[in-house]
Amino acid sequence: RFYTDIKEVTLEDVQGWRKAFPRARRVLHVSGFPCQDVAGLNLDGAGVEGQNTSLVEFSLQISEWLRAQPNWEVTDLYENVGSMSVDAEVILTGRIGVDPIMVQGKDCAYTSRPRIYWLNATGCAVQGAGFVGDHESHLEPRFRRPAGSADPVPAGHTLVVEDFYLPPMRVFLE
Question: Residue 76 and residue 60: Cα distance in Å, rounded?
Answer without folding.
Answer: 9
